[in-house]
Amino acid sequence: MTVLLYLAAALLILVSLAHSYLGERFILIRLFKRDNLPELFGSSDFTIRTLRFAWHLTSIAWLGLAALLIALASPKFTPTILLQIIAATFVLHSALALVLSRGKHWSWLLFAVVSVLLIVAVI
Q: What keywords would UniProt list here (predicted)?
């Protein structure tokens, strides 16, 4: 079973990297060249930033799931490790949303609260 968990984690890591790179190169950049994107907060900039961080959040989530599979394969796996991995995943979600939206998309705050709650739960 351990080998299968590691294999699944490796596949998730590969698909995560491919998703971010190929999505950026072949989908997002081409999409953002369009002149008919919705203008939120006075320009299409917020729309572009939101689509970009939402796209890459998927990749971060898959990396978090890969980390969980790797942890599950370990004989030292504990619920605390699970909470730490989930907290770290949401710290990354929060940071990405905060930076790419320049704080305008409030999801960063929700992700930060989830992270803090999980960190406090571990303490």
A: Membrane, Transmembrane, Transmembrane helix
